[in-house]
Amino acid sequence: xxxxxxxxxxxxxxxxxxxxxxxxxxxxxxxxxxxxxxxxxxxxxxxxxxxxxxxxxxxxxxxxxxxxxxxxxxxxxxxxxxxxxxxxxxxxxxxxxxxxxxxxxxxxxxxxxxxxxxxxxxxxxxxxxxxxxxxxxxxxxxxxxxxxxxxxxxxxxxxxxxxxxxx
Length: 167
What we know:
single chain; 5 helices; disordered C terminus
């Protein structure tokens, strides 16, 4: 997927029949106008799919529909929990379980973090309840810190280059 999240071509500048994402002509694929420019369209279907997948709200909607708000790690059904706690000391109970009251009980998580080369593709996204997401994020940060600590040591084990300052 491309790195940008916004259409390359603004709606006001988009030429009818050209894709706002890739800029290429959109052709009729069937009927009497097959092969001619389709001036009613502004997106290739594949480009629209890519664009929508890169939009955080759309990605969250798709993951919610696919996973049904069930945590991929602990299998907690966050939607069911929210319904069960409605009006029964909900805020206190949620705080005790590690959630923030008045907010969604689940978060969108990148299975392979973006910093490690992950993508915004649906296959790399999962539902995690807030406590599981917090633990996973802390674990990933710890692993990155360990890698960073190890990396300079590996470089410093090599002999330092001669600078020619001795004489």
